[in-house]
Amino acid sequence: CLQDPASAYRFTGAVCRLTYPAAVVLNEKTTKVIEAAFQHARYPSMKGEKSLLFIGKVMYGLDNLEIHNLSIGQSAFELHPGEGIAMEISNVSAVFKGTIQYGYGSWLVNFGHSVDFEIDSQIDLGINPKLYCGDGKVAADTTDCYLNFHKLRLHLQGDKEPNWLKKLFTDFITLTVKLVIKGQICKEINKAANILADFIQDTAEQFLTDGDISVDIGITAAPVITANYIESYHKGLTKYNNKIAVINESVFHPSQLTEDRMIYFWISDQFLNPMLKAAHQDGRFQLNVSGEELTVNNTGEHKMHFLHEGVYYLRGGGSQPTYMALCGKVISFISTLKDAFVVCVPVLGVELTRLLDKQGLYQFDLFNPEVLPRDGFVVIQMDFGFPHHLLVEFLKRTLQ
Ligand SMILES: CCCCC/C=C\C/C=C\CCCCCCCC(=O)O[C@H]1CC[C@@]2(C)C(=CC[C@H]3[C@@H]4CC[C@H]([C@H](C)CCCC(C)C)[C@@]4(C)CC[C@@H]32)C1
User: Fold this and answer.
1) Pairing label, strands 110-127, 56-71
2) For ligand 1, what atom is nearest to the CA of residue 352?
3) Prediction ipTM score
4) pTM for this predicted structure
5) Residue pLDDT, tens place only, 127-148
6) Most Cβ neighbours (<10 Å): which of 32, 353, 359, 388?
7) Cα–Cα distance measured from residue 274 to residue 97, given in angstroms and rounded to the nearest whole number
8) Which atom of ligand 1 is nearest to the CA of 223?
């Protein structure tokens, strides 16, 4: 994985750009993910001891700490260019319940006792995920994670303990609970963030697998974060019949994408052609287009090359390349290109949409997808809603 994205552009078959509006949609689901992290965290027992003058020493332990009545305020985030994502989850209120075992040990007396306790807490959570290339995939590093406890109030059941003991517990509990809760919660959040990143990349990989055809969308460079988008660079290597495509002259440049749609998929010819060719060889991609004048059955070897505005050429069997302007449903064969620069609704968009739907694209709430063929690449841009069932699916993975 190259550290400098620009040096990886030529090997990049596909780029995914997630703009700020898309991150806002994803962020609405963050509170659910954080809730799952709090609920799923397991708190280990903690032990402590304090030697007290005259009466020897007090040993104490905190057991089966559990969280109840968790509620989360709202989550805000910012994209920090070249840094990462800054997230603030505020007004997290929770009640922690558990049992304290304690006892005196001295030359005079030995005795143990246990008392149940409740802790009422108000917490602000801060997470600053950084994205990096981990094992060929986008991975998240959320070690920069902190909890600010606004309130931490200890209630001992029964309250018949002597005051000095209560004071001792309050100090012990406050310090220990803060450390343990922070440690466990931040660990769970790091797990959740990486499960989410994996889940999305696995979804995309499955999405691009059709029978014996699969695509390696491992990343070619570390993702880039600007103030307005997160961008990831993927290989896009088609694998079919033990043959893997090679990409080394891809023409990506960030200026080829805009920033007003939620999500962009930039797809190089060098990615799409091997995929279409494999799909054709596998009998999965028949371009039967009938228009008023004629019907074309796509036969023999062909190579889709995206020229301008929906004009493609298919290298026919013969020596002369045959050019077809796929205009809506009408195809006109053109022996020279000079009169081919017509603006057309690319038929391929229809085909691609059919393939996408077959692969389950309908599961995503996608709005107004556009397929824009350009010279040497295609841009697929759209808005989306994060469907609830996808979040449930993702959280099931987290809670495994
Ligand atoms: C997946 C939808 C498929 C629809 C496709 C439709 C048409 C496409 C046709 C061909 C596409 C070919 C190219 C596909 C390439 C896509 C590859 C891919 O997965 O990039 C993905 C690479 C990971 C990346 C960048 C992507 C989306 C969301 C990002 C996550 C959002 C939140 C999470 C953070 C860690 C925050 C966690 C919050 C915690 C703390 C609660 C992020 C940033 C981790 C990284 C994630 C795009």
Assistant:
1) unpaired
2) 9
3) 0.93
4) 0.81
5) 999 999 999 999 999 999 999 9
6) 32
7) 59
8) 25
